[in-house]
Amino acid sequence: MRRTILCVIILTALFSCKKDNNGNASSAYRQMKKITYNNVNVDVVIDKPESNIADVLIVFHGTVQNDSNIIDAAEITLDNFKNILDRKDMMIISVAHPQDNILFGDNIIQAEAALLWVKNKAETELGVQIGKIFLGGHSQGGYIVTRLNTMHLTNGVVANAPGPLNLVYRCQLEESGQVVNGRECDTLRQTYGSTSLNPNAYFQRSLLNFTTGFKSDILFVQGMNDSPIQLYSWPTFKQEVTNCTDCQIRQFVEVPLGGHPSLFTSSVAKTEFNRFINSR
Question: Domains of the chain (ranges plus CATH)?
Fold first, then answer.
């Protein structure tokens, strides 16, 4: 009796298993996975399509209150990108990059590890064949993908409202009591002192310090009704990126009445996002 039940289970599994165009077993799923590359660990959420042959979009979330929220943030960011992507055949991998107990910008270590894992280990560990690789990020995630674009070649990068653009300006406002203190500036201040004592340390971690050497084409989306802190430095950032002489193609979409999440709310931004992905 047990043998009969086992045979039925095996036959059911075999016949319910779909095949891709090459006759390989194929299935769609979403799962969380702890990955490791060069002894760096990071959690990712993987959304795999039916096929075992897929292009990949690696996405990065924005700032969260603490690391207990990063898995949720990774899930939400994955859904946000999936909802605007007009392709159903891409695998999306959302990186839960840490933010607690580190200086702002140091999570580029985990972000780079995730990218290199996709490039070098994901095929073996996931049993898939990876085609093109794209990066996408929102807010602090946009900061991360812009920095990664100065480090590694991909097929294209999309950054929505990337920042902080200018940590010197932002942290000065906190020091003068004009805005509420945040964790990012507090930890930098504990390490480097105030912006007036050590402005270069703050600038080195600002996105304004990463406006050259883009290895891949990049699309920036910025809502022009974003926060005053973001918009204060946006024209300078845009001009410096435009002036870059050793960068690949740079594109800008400015949404006149758009807020911080304009990539996900503006039909114009969504159209340009898909045009960018599909043309590469």
Answer: 24-164+217-278 (3.40.50.1820), 167-205 (no CATH)
